Amino acid sequence: MTCKLSRTSLLRLLVVLLLLSAFVFPFFVLRAGAFSGDVATSAISEAEEVVASAYEAVLEAENAGADVSGLLDKLNEAGMLLAEAQIASRLGDFDEAVLLASLCSGIGESVKNEAYELRVEAYGSRVMVSWLTMAGSTIGVVAVVFGSFLGWRVFKRRYIQQVLRLKPGVAKGES
Amino acid sequence: MNLEDYRALFATVSLVLILVVAFPALSTVVSFPSGGERFSELWLLGPNHMAEGYPFNVGVGEEYSVFVGVSNHMGCSEYYMVCVKFRNQTQPLPDSLNSIPSPLNSTYEFQFFLADGETWESPLIFSVQGEPMFVGNISINEVVFPVSCSSTWESERNGFFYQLFFELWMYDGDSSSFRYHNRFVGIWLNTTVQEAAF
After folding, report:
1. Three-class secondary structure of residue A151 per DSSP
2. Which of A16, A79, A96, A10 is nearest to B80 (CA)?
3. Which among B26, B113, B143 has CB closest to A76?
4. Which candidate, B129, B183, B191, B142, places its Cα nearest to that of B163?
């Protein structure tokens, strides 16, 4: 009876251990370098896309007039990580490749967000400056037109008065 | 001068003044073409940072260094890629006339971003591994890459020759991919010297 009981409990323990190992195994597998070449390739492709879209966001910010030198430094950091990930993948070190690619993606995403913020800021100040310039120029043009018109009228009046003050004279030798 | 002449003078001066005052506003609406040609520079320097002393007679397993550089004059920030390729005498080079890159796979790549007017430069330390007539691997910046490239004896120059060359690529936002920027530089390597040592 005792023997039967202990065998049953042993079997139960074995089942529990098997179930536990089934849950724990994937974590160990991930730790022990289970990333395949496909996973690494897809992580690198994703990182490439993120870096490219971050660059496009930086370019838009630059076109809006923002200072993007800091963002370019970060992008260069991401670019270096991407190149290292590509090398690691080519050499078969897929774990390293995935790690480097995900670090690269992280930097790329943060650069993209910063670039959008900078673009909005730069665009706002650019619109403000444009409005001020337009208003200044319009006022200036109106002032010039008005001033020229007034100036011409004053000049014309003086000119006519000056001409009217002239007395007709007879030159010598004329009859 | 009569009154009509003065009127013409007044009108001319007024128009000039109007143009001067309106110029800042016009420049925000109308885009004026920026002067100067837009281009990128790609160069290769020897180990002493000069355009001389390039590695030519290379021994198998020995390290050599060059400097590769790029300068951006495109008017905006650019995303560049320099592809390092290795070939023998018969394998194709880029086609400069049709702006087509070499179909060979790149052994090593540099990717970087440059603001307008900025310059990038990087050392490249390399060594060839194998035999004079067959280079199995090439080590670039301490990373070994397989190239499996064989060369035939060139009787005119008396040697086995290979070329290490660098292509400049630039990211194209329209196609969302890199495109060849029609610039390449390279150095010839003669591996025959090592044969005498065997």
Report:
1. helix
2. A79
3. B113
4. B191
Q: Which two tokens stand for residue B172?
A: 């194209």
* Residue A108: inside a domain: yes
Going from the first residue of chain A to its last (175 residues), give the mean pLDDT of each consecutive group of 10, the final group possibly shorter.
60 68 51 72 94 94 92 94 90 92 96 94 87 90 91 90 79 62
Mean pLDDT, chain B, whole residue set: 90
Residue A129 belongs to a domain: yes
Asked if the structure places residue A23 within a domain, the reply is no
Number of structural domains (chain A) is 1
Q: What is the DSSP letter of B103?
A: S
Distance, in Å, from the CA atom of A71 to the CA atom of B119, rounded to the nearest integer, reads: 16
The helix/strand count (H/E) of chain B reads as: 2, 9
Alpha helices, DSSP H only, in chain A? Answer: 2-31, 37-63, 69-90, 94-165
Nearest CA in chain B to A145: B14
Mutate to test the interface with A, among B14, B79, B81, B83 (most CBs of A within 10 A): B79
Compute CA distances B191 → A123, B43, B66, B154, whole Å. Answer: 58, 24, 17, 12
